[in-house]
Every structure is written in structure tokens, then in C-alpha cells.
Amino acid sequence: MPKAYEEIAEELRGRITSGAWEPGHRLPSEEELKQQYRKGGPTVRQALDVLLLEGLIDKRHGRGTFVRVPRTTVRRSNERHQWEKDRARETQDVRRRTGATERDTGLTVDDLVFSAEYREATANEDLAGAFGVPTGTPLLERIYRTRYRREPAPFSVSHSCLVREHVEANPELLDEKNEPWPGGTHHQLRTVGIEVDRVVERILGARPPRQDEAKQLGMSPGMALIVMRETLYATDGRVVEVADVALPGDRTELTFVTRLARW
């Protein structure tokens, strides 16, 4: 037999999924729900916690509880990589007009708020193994966040690392003030004579976000966070970028396209 909080959650869930309560709708207060269902505060809070974990509602401090507004979807395909490489050889004017995020979301440059943070780092055991360099090798760590101007949280967070020696010939690549860089990483590497040969994306898993990740990405505790490592290889075989990307499951659609040779 269902518990009282499960029955309340089921009824509230039905109002949301049926569309009776639209995105942004303010739910009755906890006190109103207690009176409506004739149950105590702990039972009502348990019911709301179920919906929060399912990503159906948002609790806003001092304002109440609301039906969650769906985030803009990022439709990410492995075909984006050739598109990014081709764009690196376009004129600066063409490169400035659009980027991978615009391609994946259908938004324009003016719709987006871009953030980049650079800092000096050294290769730990994990990154040293990924790059094939000694532990302690100087790296340039770059943290990227891009969000839709109308939404509070970014589409993803990317921690990108470059071997400093690979890019220091162009000092402009070491300064975050030059971001967003027209043409992205492919063009940045092109300025120091590096051509990307292949991109390997490895899904490391899907898990609930940590508290800091949930806050940063605007996620409910029960949502899935997709964790991916993207590795760029140059034509000479060197690993030239390793990026760990956090992709919220509520706004990410992954498509894998494999072209097959004809018989």
C-alpha cells in the first residue's frame, strides 16, 4: 500500500505531467498542502522532496515552490567536430558569427553569455597519463561556461587543459581576455601550427551531481550529470587537449553518427 507522501507526490506529479500546472506555476504553500491533504508537515515535505529529486519542481528560497521550467536543449553530435575544424580556416568575420554552442542550440551569439577562466596548473598522474608527459608538466587550465541569456545556469562546464609548451609560442593563447576566441580551440591550435587529426570522446558515466555542481549548473539533486572526457590528437600523434566536460542530463541530447562504407 502506498505511503501517504507517495500518494501526495503522485497527485501533484499528475498535475504537472498533464499540463494542468504549466512550467513556472507556483505550487500551493506547504501550509496549504497540509490543510488540503490533512497531513503533517513532514509528510508534505517528503512528497515535495520526491518531485524535487525527479526534477519536476524548483524550490526558490523565500519565494516558494514552482514547476520547473525546461532548459534550452543542447543537441550535441559527433559531427560537430568536423564542422569545428572546417570553421578554423574561415575568415575571422565568419568565425565570429557562430560557434559550436550556437550550432548545437540554434541560438545566436547575442543570445549567449560566455565565461572563460584561465589558470596555470601542473599535470597530476591522471593528466600526465592522458597527455603522455611527466607528472608536474606545466599546463594551461581553461574553464568554460556558456549559458542562454534568459536562463541562470550554463549548458555545461568544461575543464580544458593544454600543455603550456605546445601553445606558449603565441602569448595571446595564454590570456583569457581573448575569449571567446573566434574559431575556438581548433583555430587557437592552428595559430601555433597544430592541426587536429581526431577527437575521442569517452563517456565516463552518469551520476547525481555533487552539491557544488548542482548549484553551479542549476540542477536538482536527483538529476543525472553526464561526465565526458574529450581528447584531441594532433596529426603527429600528440595529445594536444584534454577536456573534462560536465553535461546536465536535463538539457543535453547526445547523438552518435557513424558513417558506414558502402559495399
UniProtKB/TrEMBL annotation:
What residues does the HTH gntR-type domain cover? Answer: 2-70
- Superkingdom classification of source: Bacteria
Q: Cite the residue spans of the region called Disordered.
A: 76-102
Q: Which GO terms describe its molecular function?
A: DNA binding; DNA-binding transcription factor activity
Q: Does the keyword Transcription regulation apply?
A: yes
SUPFAM superfamilies annotated for this entry? Answer: Chorismate lyase-like (SSF64288), Winged helix' DNA-binding domain (SSF46785)
Q: Where are the transmembrane segments?
A: none
The answer to keyword Cytoplasm applying to this record is no
Q: Which organism is it from?
A: Streptomyces hoynatensis
Cite a single GO BP annotation. negative regulation of DNA-templated transcription
- Put simply, this protein is called GntR family transcriptional regulator
InterPro entries referenced in this protein's UniProt entry, alphabetically: Bact_HTH_transcr_reg, Chorismate_lyase_/UTRA_dom_sf, Tscrpt_reg_HTH_GntR, UTRA, WH-like_DNA-bd_sf, WH_DNA-bd_sf
Q: Which UniProt keywords apply?
A: DNA-binding, Transcription, Transcription regulation
Query: What Gene3D superfamilies has UniProt attached to this entry?
Result: Chorismate lyase-like, Winged helix-like DNA-binding domain superfamily/Winged helix DNA-binding domain
